[in-house]
């Protein structure tokens, strides 16, 4: 009998396998980026790159937030409201005695706390995430409107310049977040997301603390969405209690483009990043090509359906003898 | 007889669900260095007892005792700490994760809070070697066949270095080769002093591996004794509480009628160049190791996957059937192996499951004819001895009764060809016997029964002919006189009967 095949570096081998099925996405993203760079050569300058990544940054964050929920086998309808709340809290607190640092802490704590509470309700009461987050979206929107009924508040100019100025700080932050994500996935709790999303009963029997995995994932998801809100506030220089609304559906679109499955446990963060990048570039390219906004929505929808249908069709076509 | 101290015991445990008592004062004691068999029909309470012993459920009354000490709140975590590992019937694997990650899941080695992939790789390689898993450790489990996944599941249990190992129907999806490796492994673990609990519907395995048996019937222990000197009939008697006679009904000669299927170089999926003939009134067995193209052969016949052939006569059609509807019209019916997903709509009632294939025929003025539906359901329930309320969801039934429903729903269409994919897998003995009698009566009525089975004795006792598959091809077609377990297994493994016995 032949011996067990042991890869020389198990971690690297496992990571390499996760690229499977993403080649097409990588190529499409690359093609769109090339088109965009041709249409808008400014992309290749520091300023242009900074602006481009700043537009992409909040979408990347909310797509990651949504992907965390979808990997757990649920879907969140509260992403947009969380973004709004993050923006509102930043705009309300940064002018206060605690300043920017205090605002940062307040936004992070709110994101983590609301995420963890939602996660706790879903995990321990065994309720479907889509319903709990639907309810949550009303509550969070309400809180945001109470805190700041009209757009306003205060964000220091230096902070706006730092995050949304002419330097690629946002891109640097994204790289840091990705490193953090990689490290999280390399912990038993992070890996547990895949196990719990794929086969919750099996994961429970294997000794994966399924509830704790969920609560952590929801909390991180909330944090990412709230931080996206903070960034949006810095970009606009003020808070707006409904600014996050489009992010809910865009986060789902980005995750789907990135190959995250609705049933849980399937999807990769590299796919998610590419998915959000693709969505962001797509919107920009259509804008530069002069599509009217309505046509942009229709095209966006068609591209998303196509992104899901094409792999399905090719696999069916391949299966034919 | 020396008395060794049991590692794990249940003492007078009671457990019920929604007021239905399932276990009524059960004792069991697992001793080191012994393979203990747990037998009982489906619904006898075996799964519940396993769940109590592994901490997945808490007893309503009674104690779980580890090393002689009762444990007050026995959780899965406490069970793991006590060195108890379970190989469940339903797989606990995550399809997207690699073999190594799955095996380590819940017990992953860490360094600085991160998973230590180097240490994981080394320790997983060791258990994989023991169970004969040769696939790359980084391969996603979703890419493996059912049998290989079961081996991963076993490796996962061993990875935790258990003192007590509970195996729930571990061989139901394994090939003969894999089952052989497992049997050797079980003996080795026993000699190392591990306490093993072995649950199986396959009595020959129990006889070969186990030295002690506990038999459950309706939630009480009807026997707890050494296995030596008890033969298969004795075991069956203990399980059903009466003399069940032979498991297999006596052979009845039945004349073959007109030829219904004639294939030349028929290919579908992994089944390649199959020559095959069968006539009305025959029971034809399809045998071989798991996953050698048998299932694709049936699906191809049924028009569920694309098929091609040099010549194909299938129940009046002169070419392979292209669609399932066409197959149904030609008189073919297919009972899938995975009854929970493919054979039944689990949350729906027994009645609506039974009606599903006939709905189109029971129509009056364009609407459903409720009276005719009721009559049909009543008739089928009687013919199948399905007791109780037919409005219950089918998932409330035991595996055996579910299978009866999956089979019976085709009867009103009066199919002339029945394609059965492992109809008795995970089915209790009494229901097995009922299913065997059904198959015989189908043949007597002049139907053609094609029986794919992973249970070789079934093929030996029931079939007029057995086609043995290996790597997609029929390597032997054994006539009635030549059918024996040795001949089937030998052909399946590609060796002579003598070699296979070794």
From TrEMBL, chain A:
It comes from Nitratireductor aquimarinus. Keywords: Cell inner membrane, Cell membrane, Membrane, Transmembrane, Transmembrane helix, Transport. Part of the ABC transporter complex LsrABCD involved in autoinducer 2 (AI-2) import. Probably responsible for the translocation of the substrate across the membrane. The complex is composed of two ATP-binding proteins (LsrA), two transmembrane proteins (LsrC and LsrD) and a solute-binding protein (LsrB). Pfam families: BPD_transp_2 (PF02653). It is a multi-pass membrane protein. It comes from the Bacteria. The chain crosses the membrane at residues 24-44, 56-79, 85-115, 127-149, 169-194, 215-235, 247-265, 272-291. It is found in: Cell membrane. This is Autoinducer 2 import system permease protein LsrD. The keyword Cell inner membrane applies. Its main location: membrane. The keyword Cell cycle does not apply.
